[in-house]
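Protein modeling request. Please complete all fields; requests missing the sequence field cannot be processed.
Requester role: graduate student
Desired output: 3D structure, token encoding
Chains: 1
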Amino acid sequence: MFVRIAGFDPLFDIDRTVDEMLSRFRTVRTATYPAMDVAEYDGEYVITAELPGMKKEDVKISIEEGNLVLRGERKHYGLPEGTRVLRHETHTHPFVRSFELPDEVNVNEISAEMKDGILRIRLPKTEQARPREISIR
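Delivered output (137 residues):
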């Protein structure tokens, strides 16, 4: 039996903090491939996806009902006929990852680039959502 004592609970606080940070980009579908990171900067969010061996032509990005949707299919690299596979760990199936976009994303300015199997999707914030300094009179 576990008894929770009121006060500082570092594990609970870490879990709550992580949940709050990730709540802005909730995963709509439960998928784990491709591996993705979401980072927030003053003026934008950046989603980075690992897509080893894929070309940009194999990936489609769209906005659907307020969600950013990443679709693609990692095809098998090909083995000579007659090869006996002893272990198979590579992902070679279609995938879909979907994230609910926060209201502060300017969907008309979203851009993406792919280099060396790393896809970066930049989601600029609207001017109203960007931090700014207020001068005192």
